[in-house]
Every structure is written in structure tokens, then in C-alpha cells.
Amino acid sequence: MLALGIDVGSLTAEAVLINQAKEVLAGCILPTGANSRRAGEGDLAAALAQSGKQRGDIGFVVATGYGRISLDFAGKQVTEITCHARGIHHLRPEVRTLIDIGGQDSKAIRVSSRGRVLDFIMNDKCAAGTGRFLEVMAGALEMELDQLAAGGSRAKASVPISSMCTVFAESEVVSLLAADHPRENIIRGIHEAIALRTAGMLRRIGLEEPLAMSGGVAKNSGVVRALEEQLGCSIFVPEEPQIVGALGAALIALDHLQVFGGEGEAGALGD
Ligand SMILES: Nc1ncnc2c1ncn2[C@@H]1O[C@H](COP(=O)(O)OP(=O)(O)OP(=O)(O)O)[C@@H](O)[C@H]1O
Ligand SMILES: [Mg+2]
């Protein structure tokens, strides 16, 4: 029997399918769009197609992310904080602090030596410090997200972005471009603005190393570097940081299967 984890976030929905040996048979990332339920079903179909498995092979499904309540085929819903902690613990058990920055919110999580959540803080009231901020800035600079990620690496200096609000920061970037500041210096300033907010959250929760980062923004090497410089420590970024929450959900689904079995249960998918 296989275990499936699905993380329906505000921007992207991920699925991870694992077997009893905790080997990953499929890992999929799709846009969430306007309908969380449809996104989750799309993920399920993609995971089956990628692994060549059938619905009936899946013994239990755990859903996480802000859209988790919409997935009626899941046997259990678990918060993304618990799932990210579990996922990172599986990949790197030594990690004691995790930062997850997604499209809509950012979280700092203290993780125990057993992969449990000891404490967390979350910023979900404002786009500043999240992936949304980076998307708005990429729009102002007329760049793709991956160009923005790499764009600050040659900067000779950084132009600080002083506005705390995403909407004002966007106008500020437009003015800085008009004033002929080098683009790479502006990009460096954008990465440092995210790093500054994140470092503030880490100070509040108490940073214990090793530190890791998950979520889509961990793919932005400029943000990771700026944060490493501000904190003076290195950050472990998994090979695919965006699926850490779905991986944690899959591992929790596997726990459930190992304790209760999957036959004929809610959360077990029929053919
Ligand atoms: N290739 C990439 N390069 C740089 N940044 C990226 C890349 N792919 C995604 N991102 C960033 O990741 C963000 C989305 O992250 P993620 O998929 O973890 O969000 P989410 O889980 O849907 O949101 P939330 O957890 O807040 O509900 C985007 O806003 C973008 O800033
Ligand atoms: Mg997320």
C-alpha cells in the first residue's frame, strides 16, 4: 500500500507518493488556480501518471496547506507547519530550525530531534517577506522569477528598499529604475528586504542551527544568500524545497497506514 501527501498552497499544489520503504515514487508541482479541490485532484492524477500506479494502490492520503479542507478524498488533514517539520526531518534529521516561505505566508519553525514542532511563528497578514512580494517585484522589473533569483549575484552594491509595504515597494522600484540605479543593485536590495524580515522572525523565535529553508522562495538563491549573510550561518536547501510539505504529509499518511492499515478506510482510494 502506498501513501500520498498533497499540499494545496495558495499558489502551487504539490503531491508526493511514497512506498513502505519511504521511497518517493512521484513528486508533482502544479498551479493551485482558483479551485483547491480541482488542484488536489489534478495532483492525484499527476502522481498516478508519474508513478504508473492505480488509485487502488494508495492506502491513505493526508492533505495539508491552506486548501487542505477541500480535499474530500483525503483521510486526514494536517497543518502545513507539522508537515514541513516532518518533511525536513526526513531529509536532514539534524535540522533544528526551518523557514518556509511560500506565495502567501512565511513561517519560522523550531523542530525537535524527532521531527516534531517545538514552536513556530507565522507572517500571514502581509505580502512583504513572501513569494508574492518577489512576484510583484519581478513584475515591476519585467523579469521572470528565475531571472530575478540570479539577477543580484553580480551586484557591486545594494539599493535598500525602504518601503515596508509591497504596493509602495513596487512604486519605489519603478522610481529607482527611472533614476538609473543598476538593476542588479535593485535586485540585491529586494533580496535583502526579504532576508531582513525573515531574520527578524528567526530572532523572535530563537534560531538554533542547523537551519534549513523550504517552500518555493528557497529556489531563489539570491534570497538564500542574502539571509545567510545577514545571519552569518549557512542554510540547507533541499534539492526540491517546494515539495517538503507534501513529503511530510506522505510520511504522516504512511504512519497511519502502518498503525491502522488502509483497507476499506476513509482516505483509502478505491479503483
Ligand atoms: N524557480 C523559481 N525561482 C525563484 N522563485 C520561485 C521559483 N519557483 C517558485 N518560486 C517562488 O515560490 C513562491 C511560491 O512558493 P510555494 O509554492 O511554496 O507557495 P505556496 O505553498 O503555494 O504558498 P503558501 O504556502 O504561502 O500558501 C512564488 O511566489 C515564488 O516567489
Ligand atoms: Mg506552502
Describe the structure in your own words.
The chain is an alpha/beta fold and 271 residues long. The chain has two domains: 2-83 and 244-260, ATPase, nucleotide binding domain (Nucleotidyltransferase, domain 5), CATH 3.30.420; 94-237, ATPase, nucleotide binding domain (Nucleotidyltransferase, domain 5, 2-Layer Sandwich). The protein has eight helices and ten strands. The protein has helices spanning 36-51, 80-91, 131-140, 145-151, 166-178, 183-205, 221-231, 244-260; strands spanning 2-8, 12-18, 24-31, 58-64, 76-77, 97-101, 106-111, 117-123, 211-214, 235-236. The chain has a five-stranded mixed beta sheet with strand order 3-2-1-4-5. Helix 2 (80-91) crosses helix 8, helix 3 packs parallel to helix 5 and helix 6 (183-205) crosses helix 7 (221-231). The two termini are 13 Å apart. The structure holds adenosine-5'-triphosphate (ATP) and magnesium ion. The site of magnesium ion has 6 residues, from loops.
